[in-house]
């Protein structure tokens, strides 16, 4: 199925920019060694494919999902085949003792960190939320420092999120704090990042859930009042690749908000998706009605849908990639904007955050409100509203 068509776009977003720098891009990759962290996730696989097809000197991929790594290898062998350079995968976690041992044996020119807890629903309980903090912030910094055991990197790339701009949820706030830690680290290291739109049909996303509901003959549910920008899986890999190879120190790349990148409502994408599959749509008034009608209607080629107004914590009505106090470069690329970070974050604020989180972990007991309070003191711009409802309470 054509993801671009479902998100209402007729052409690929970055093709013109890639065409201009393709020769330079291919030369860099052909003569460099790469490590992709979190390389078996949706974005990680997209980045891995973009590097692999340009024949790097070496490409190593790590991920904690052994099964997804196996599928990544099978996909590459079945589509692109083999490269003349070295290609290896490792089923290990970043920032672990196994990862530290890996860095003693191998060195890399470019490292792409795609490891992240990316769902707003991850903040629903204090335990998953603490792991989100570990993965998105502290593991990122630790991984960066471990990678410099043998030689300095040419560049370290880490994925951020559009939700880091004026964050209203703790996932977005964690990525903003990660950005601040990396800005501090960039005083001595080359680091770049990317904020970008939702990746259409990526694992765990609502659109990916549409696929699962179709396979399992279950009703589809989606908010009707939330608009998002979408990019395809391939475009996510291309954006990260360009940011990682051509980003200058502390650049944050993002897709430009142009007519080629349309705001889409989840409910409208659901309708387009079902129509493209040849189904009619029955809008239901409740989850219960949608479930009850599914067995009767689906066999008649009618799909029950429940569209609702969003009322969960941390949901942002609109999407933005930068704030009013960030310096932008909108001329270098046609379809990519760049945030030029010149402001070094407050060291006392970062120290406070680490010490407070460490204290909670040492106590071995914490509540969500404890973590929320630390976030608010660390990020004065963090505007979080707790509604008492989360996405796990939705169909």
Characterization of this structure:
It is a single chain. With 395 residues, the protein is an alpha/beta fold. The chain contains 13 helices and 16 strands. Strands 3-2-1-4-5-6-11-16-15 form a nine-stranded mixed sheet, with helices on both faces. A three-stranded parallel sheet has the order 8-14-13. The chain has a two-stranded parallel sheet with strand order 7-10. A hairpin with a 6-residue loop joins strand 15 and strand 16. The longest helix is centred in the middle third of the chain and has 21 residues. The chain is globular. The two termini are 24 Å apart. The model has no long low-confidence stretch (mean pLDDT 90).
Structural class: alpha/beta
The N- to C-terminal Cα distance equals: 24 Å
Task: Report on the biggest sheet.
Answer: 9 strands, mixed
Helix content: 40-55%
Task: Draw up the topology in text.
Layout: H1 3-6, H2 15-30, E1 33-37, H3 42-52, E2 58-62, H4 66-79, E3 86-90, H5 97-105, E4 110-113, H6 126-146, E5 155-159, H7 170-185, E6 191-194, E7 198-199, H8 206-215, E8 220-223, E9 227-228, E10 230-231, H9 233-246, E11 251-255, E12 264-265, H10 266-276, E13 280-284, H11 287-297, E14 302-308, E15 328-329, E16 336-340, H12 347-363, H13 368-378
Parallel strand pairs: 1-2, 1-4, 2-3, 4-5, 5-6, 6-11, 7-10, 8-14, 13-14
Antiparallel strand pairs: 9-12, 11-16, 15-16
């Amino acid at each position: 199925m054509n993801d671009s068509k479902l998100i209402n776009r007729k052409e690929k977003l970055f093709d013109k920019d890639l065409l201009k720098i393709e020769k330079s891009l291919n030369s860099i990759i052909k003569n460099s060694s790469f490590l992709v962290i979190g390389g078996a996730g949706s974005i990680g696989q997209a980045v891995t494919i973009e590097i692999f097809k340009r024949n790097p000197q070496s490409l190593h991929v790590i991920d904690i999902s052994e099964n997804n790594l196996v599928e990544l290898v099978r996909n590459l062998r079945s589509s692109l085949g083999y490269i003349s350079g070295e290609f290896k995968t490792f089923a290990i976690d970043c920032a672990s003792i196994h990862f530290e041992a890996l860095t003693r044996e191998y060195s890399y020119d470019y490292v792409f960190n795609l490891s992240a807890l990316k769902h707003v629903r991850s903040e629903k309980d204090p335990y998953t939320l603490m792991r989100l903090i570990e993965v998105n912030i502290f593991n990122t910094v630790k991984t960066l420092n471990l990678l410099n055991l043998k030689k300095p990197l040419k560049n370290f790339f880490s994925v951020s999120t559009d939700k880091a701009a004026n964050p209203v949820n703790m996932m977005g706030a964690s990525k903003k704090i990660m950005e601040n830690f990396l800005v501090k680290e960039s005083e001595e290291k080359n680091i770049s990042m990317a904020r970008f739109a939702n990746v259409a049909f990526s694992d765990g996303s609502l659109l990916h859930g549409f696929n699962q509901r179709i396979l399992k003959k279950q009703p589809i549910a989606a908010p009707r009042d939330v608009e998002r920008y979408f990019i395809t899986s391939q475009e996510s890999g291309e954006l990260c690749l360009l940011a990682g190879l051509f980003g200058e120190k502390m650049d944050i790349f993002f897709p430009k908000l142009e007519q080629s990148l349309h705001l889409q409502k989840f409910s409208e994408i659901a309708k387009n998706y079902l129509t493209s599959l040849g189904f009619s749509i029955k809008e239901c008034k409740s989850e219960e009605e949608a479930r009850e009608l599914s067995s009767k209607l689906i066999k008649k080629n009618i799909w029950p849908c429940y569209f609702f107004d969003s009322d969960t914590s941390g949901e942002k009505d609109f999407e933005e990639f930068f704030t009013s106090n960030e310096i932008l470069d909108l001329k270098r690329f046609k379809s990519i904007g760049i945030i030029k970070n010149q402001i070094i974050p407050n060291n006392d604020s970062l120290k406070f955050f680490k010490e407070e989180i460490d204290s909670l972990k040492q106590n071995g007991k914490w509540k969500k409100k404890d973590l929320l309070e630390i976030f608010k003191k660390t990020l004065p711009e963090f505007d979080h509203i707790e509604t008492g409802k989360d996405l796990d309470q939705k169909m």
